[in-house]
């Protein structure tokens, strides 16, 4: 048997859930998940996650406003996609959205398109930012473990004083792979005695 399930959220402990819960009960919700928690991502809200797991095909999820469930268009699109896969309808009371109707489904399709657009713009901006930073000489990735001077010293110790790779690794406080890279060797070198 399908259920009408409510979800209510406020972002701080000083706020009250009463108004949302009263509206959800008046609509006929038989079970209500509620939490006092902020969070931009849905996965940082345990009651929302529990609600999404609880919902079954044919159920209806009821919320008072879209921003109670999702904090961004992208977040909303992810949740809407999950609800759609599970065969769960969404009803938003204050904004008159109901995915059981063709208008409600259209609204969600548009929101999904906006979410993808927002994601594409963010990725494009990020790529532009990285390109500009590289032009200015900003280095990306992990900081080098050894300076060029240390690499030179490692090669000298290895060639002239016959230090082993483990001895060099211990002396420079790095792993053996870092020593091999400093020596320009890809793996254990057995040509030089330890």
From TrEMBL:
InterPro entries: Homeodomain-like_sf (IPR009057), Recombinase_CS (IPR006118), Resolv_N (IPR006119), Resolvase-like_N_sf (IPR036162), Resolvase_HTH_dom (IPR006120), SSR_resolvase (IPR050639). Residues 3-137 form the Resolvase/invertase-type recombinase catalytic domain. Gene3D superfamilies: Homeodomain-like, Resolvase, N-terminal catalytic domain. Keywords: DNA integration, DNA recombination, DNA-binding. Pfam families: HTH_7, Resolvase. The active site is at residue 11. Belongs to the site-specific recombinase resolvase family. This is Recombinase family protein. The lineage of its organism: Bacteria, Pseudomonadati, Pseudomonadota, Gammaproteobacteria, Lysobacterales.
